[in-house]
Structure formats: structure tokens, C-alpha cells
Automatic annotation (TrEMBL):
Name assigned to this protein: GMC family oxidoreductase N-terminal domain-containing protein
Keyword check for Flavoprotein: yes
Cofactor needs: FAD
Record's keyword terms, sorted: FAD, Flavoprotein
Signal peptide bounds: none
Keyword Flavoprotein applies: yes
Classification via Gene3D superfamilies: FAD/NAD(P)-binding domain, Glucose Oxidase, domain 3
Amino acid sequence: MSVEYDYVIVGAGSAGCVLANRLSADPGTRVALIEAGGSDRGLEVRMPAGFSRLFKTERDWDFTTVRQPELSGRELYWPRGRMLGGSSSMNAQMWVRGHRADYDGWNIPGWSYEDVLPYFRRTERRAGSNRGEVYGTKGPIHISELRSPNPATALFLRACEELGIARLDELNGPSNEGCSPTPVTQRRGRRWSSADAYLAPAAKRPNLTVLTSSRVRRVLVEDGRATGVEYGDDGGGAAVVRARGEVILSAGTIGSPHLLMLSGVGPADELLAAGVEPVHELPGVGANLQDHLASGIFLHCLKPITLAGAESAGNLLRFLAGGRGMLTSNVGEAVAFIRTSEEEPAPDIELIFAPGSFVGHGLTPPPGHGLTIASILLRPESRGRISLDGRDIVIDPGYLTAEADVRRMVTGLRKAGELFATEALRPLAGPPMDPYWGPRTDEELVRWIRERSETLYHPVGTCRMGEDPGSVVDPALRVRGIAGLRVADASVMPVITRGHTHAPTVMIAERAADLIAAESLSR
Ligand SMILES: Cc1cc2nc3c(=O)[nH]c(=O)nc-3n(C[C@H](O)[C@H](O)[C@H](O)COP(=O)(O)OP(=O)(O)OC[C@H]3O[C@@H](n4cnc5c(N)ncnc54)[C@H](O)[C@@H]3O)c2cc1C
């Protein structure tokens, strides 16, 4: 049996929820949103500090990369949200648009900083400081200040100023060079995901159908046109939905290229080797994978004020009764964006401060009160790829395959060490906390980076947008060579932003909705 809609959207994540709302705003348009995961209800999703409690549960795709030769041969754990809201229901809630140079640097008509700025503003509903009115205030995504920041966070910001890192008026202006408390996607101290912002208000529309626990297996392509999708439910059944207008893939940086490949769109030789009949040769599918790599310094905290004490009965009560207290922390409470050399046009390293020890994705209970400053490689030169092994996905981020990336990481970690040595932070900064052992020389720092770096959870780029024929989607996000098929999610970013990836993904989806509406009017 098959049912027909105007638009079929695959994936209810950061991007898919935006599209479901915007496209179904016209009551004459029938929209289906199909999500592999289930509900986003529950305390672990709502409670900001609890995001690592979602790791390795049924709400996590729980991916693993292949062995990374430049990271001591380790296989890395990659969580991704598998529920309504997708990764926006399990992320650290940091709202960081990036730098104007990111979008101008994409160099794609329609996607310059000035072009995309209205879409950021359209999505934002800022509560709190808004100097220069950089934020929008009427959109669906609540962007707040942390309600109960840790006292150590103010000291980190003072430490940055001691080292000459200027305090920004607002983090999300055109330049993010400087330091700032982290703006968070929270409302009254609770997580505010794409599903909260976009899906919940549209859920009762009779022209929007949301299917959960339904994993799309492939896009149906007939005579060069996407006509629908085939999906399976958790019980092993299969069904088809048809799209009169378009199929839109918003299944994320791993899911979207995976689905294209399973549908016969990708590098033909690789598809054949995996037993998939090629429908359209598009070698760029799965290539251009980029991620932000993170390497941290972990120290004992000399005062018992950190998030190690977050899960007390008192804090739970404070959170449940008033949306306040340590459980409203997003862990990464403040940031600094810096350049490792004067030649850099914009920041290439981010330093994230956590008033707690965030070791092993927060899955390992800390051995006491700790502090973390993580150094993030914002502009990796390394590129990886996603490919098929039979029907399964293979993730190779190619971390640190470019030598320049290692040098930048070393400079970032040195700066993190300098911050801990400032007058502001010294009273809190104790000895190294296990597994950190206090590397000092360049060789030791490189060893630490290779042995312990982890993802900051920001993969992008595997369905690259561009004007060139080698790109996967064109500047209107249409898949090259297949009519009626678009990709709108983090995978279309040609180059990763010098910020975090949720905000740009929402922006991409907002713009995609306009592009789709404009095209439907002209049909
Ligand atoms: C632990 C963690 C922390 C993060 N912290 C931050 C942060 O603080 N700030 C920030 O900006 N970014 C953060 N990110 C990254 C950010 O959340 C993502 O970049 C963003 O959510 C990506 O949006 P998306 O729409 O591309 O994909 P997703 O939001 O991942 O959505 C994809 C959706 O598609 C579904 N799907 C996939 N395949 C199929 C299929 N075959 N059939 C049906 N459905 C399918 C998935 O289940 C999912 O719901 C974090 C991510 C993680 C995992």
C-alpha cells in the first residue's frame, strides 16, 4: 500500500523539523515527515546537563568510526540523535552561528553572510542580552543565557581577558573572535530542540503526517525522478510513501549520503562493489567529510564547586521545581575563539570551558571535582569520507591526516594551559586529573592529542553544495541529476563553520523551505 504527499521529508532532526513546519504552513500542501527513532519525551532529553545519559541508548545511533591511523589507531565513538529532534534533542545546546568569513568563504550565490543572516534571525527568539540587536527575537528557537552558571565560569572569562582575549558583546555577531558565556537553546532552564520549536506547534495540522520508528531504506527513483521512499517499521514490515512534489533528505551527515548510496546515487564502482545497482553516478556522495576534533586539559578543581555535585537530590528538586541549578548547565558554559597565527583570517581554534571533568564523553564518572578546557580544531584541513560496506555505513573522518591540523591543535592546548595558569583560574587549578598526565613538550602534547582526542560531534559536508559539477547538490540544494530530490541538513555544508553546527543547520533548513516554496510557485 502507498500513500501520496506533496513533500516527503526524511529525518526529524535539526533540519527536518524546520521543513515539516514551514512546508505544512500552507494547509493545501500535504507533508510527511519520516523518522527512524521515536519520541523525545523524558527527563534525560529535557534536562540540559543530562545529554550524555542519552549516549549508547536506543535514542542514539551509536556509530563508530574506522580505525584512525593518526589517532593511535583508535576507533572513535560518534553519537547521533535517533528520536524526534534528532541530534538537537541530545546536543550540548550551544548556539554558535560561526564567523561571517565562513559563509562568505563558501562563495556560493545565495549563501553569503548577508544572504544567510536573515534566516538566523528568523529562527531566533533571544531572551537576555542582545547588544547591537544581533539576535532575532520573534522566531521559534529560544536562545537563552544559562540560568545558573557555575562560579568557575566567570573566572574562565576573566582568565581570557587576562591573556588579552577580548570579551565579546555578543557571541553571535559577525565576528566571534573573543570570549563569551555560551548562549544556549533552552527555555526556562530546559532543552529547546528543533522538535520543540518547530514540530510541536505544527503537530496538530491535518496536512502533516509524522511517522516515527520508521527507517527509510531507499529513495524510489523512476525515469530520473524521485517519486517516494520505501521504509521499514520496527516490526520488520515495509511500506512506501509517494511524493507528488519532492523528497527531501534531512537524515544528517551520515544518514543522507547513506540513503543516497542505498538508492543507487553515488560513486558507481563503490555501489557495484556493495551490491547496489547504480541509478546515477555522483562520485561526491559521502566525500568531503569534516568534523571538529577536541582535545582537553583536565585538572582537579581545588574547590568543591563543580558539576561533579550536580546530581544531588537538592539539584534535582531545583531543576524540577524551577528550572534552575546545576542540572540546567550545558557543561560547555563558556567559549573563546582565537587565531593561532596572525595570518589566519578568522579564529581557527575554539576553547571550551566546562566546570567539570568531561572525560570519555561524560560516560566515565569523574574521580572528583575537576575542570576542563578543551581545544577544538575549527578549520580542519583533513578530509574524510563515508562509504558503503554492503548495506552498512563506513565512517572514516580522516582525522589529522593533514599535518597543519596537528600544529594547530598543539597551539590550542598550549593556550588552554596558559588559561589555567592565570591569576583568575590559578586558585581553582589543581594537579592533572586522570587520564590527563600534564604533557609539556611539543612531542608530549602531540602524543596526548593522538591518544585522547575525541569528536566534538560536528560532522558535516558529505553531500557538498556547490556550483561545480562535482558537488552533490546545487545552490538550491537539488541533488544533481535526479529531479524532485533535495538534501537539506548539515551534510550540504561545503566547509565546516568556525562555530557549532546546529545553528547553521537550522539556517540551511529555513532557507531550503524558501527555495522549495519559490520553486513550487513557479511550477
Ligand atoms: C552529543 C552531541 C552534542 C552536540 N552539541 C552541539 C552543540 O552544543 N551545539 C551545536 O551547534 N551542535 C551540537 N551538536 C551537533 C548538532 O546537533 C548537529 O550538527 C545537528 O543536529 C545536525 O542536524 P541534522 O538535521 O543534519 O541531523 P540530525 O539532527 O542528526 O537529524 C537527522 C535525523 O534523521 C534521522 N534519520 C537518519 N537516517 C534515517 C533514515 N534512514 N530513516 C528515517 N530517519 C532517519 C535521525 O534519526 C535523526 O533524527 C552536537 C551533536 C551531538 C550528537
